[in-house]
Amino acid sequence: MSSQLIVDVGDLVGHPGAGKDVSGAVPVSLRLGDVTVKGLMEIEGTVDGTVDGVIARFSARAPAHFVCVRCLTEWHGEIEAESAQHYSHLPDEDGYAIVDRQVDLTGPVTDELALSMPAVPVCRRDCKGLCPICGTDLNVDPCDGHGEESDSPFAVLRDLLDS
Ligand SMILES: [Zn+2]
Ligand SMILES: [Zn+2]
Predict the structure, then answer these.
(1) Phi/psi of residue 108, each to 5°?
(2) pLDDT by residue (tens digit) across 20-77?
(3) b/e code 109-147 from CB counts within 10 Å (16+ = b)
(4) 53 CA → ligand 1 middle, Å
(5) N or C: less crowded end of the chain, CB within 10 Å?
């Protein structure tokens, strides 16, 4: 399997109004904190000619694995992204350009997918997390059994201060 999505744009450059559909799947592996994107990134889009190059509009999706930062629940899902990238013969600030009458969509699509990864994944908006004292999942069990002062870190601190 190809690790890039290469599109021949020789007949599009300088021809506004000319365009083609593109699609493909390339392997991806990204990691941001508690989110891992790994597997096949599916890409669909169009590439259209502009006066001095081409513009690629694309959407992409890839399998992802998440770990809730509050309760440590793990789940599988997807990361989706969509964006556009203009290519000309001169590289842009990210270094993307038309090379040998071709463009590679892999870089811009991967960049966009990485930007769509949540920095702080939570399993649900109101996740209560784990009890900081006993580690019980507070979504499942309210865990109100820490009423005795001796269990509290503040009680320990108070004992130290008293002595
Ligand atoms: Zn959670
Ligand atoms: Zn507890």
Answers:
(1) -60, -40
(2) 999 999 999 999 999 999 999 999 999 999 999 999 999 999 999 999 999 999 999 9
(3) bbebbbebbeeebbbeeebeebbeeeeebbbeeeeeeee
(4) 46
(5) C
| Residue 156, SS3 per DSSP | helix
Residues 43 and 28: their CA atoms lie apart, in Å, by 11
The two three-digit tokens of residue 109, written as one number: 């699509």
pLDDT above 80 for 112? yes
CA 146 to ligand 2 center in whole angstroms: 6
CA of 135 to the centre of ligand 2 (A): 6
The residue type found at 96 is Y
Q: Across the beta sheet with 53-67, what order do the strands follow? A: 19-32, 35-49, 53-67, 74-88
**Planar angle of CA 27, 31, 34, nearest 5 degrees:** 135
pTM metric for this prediction: 0.80
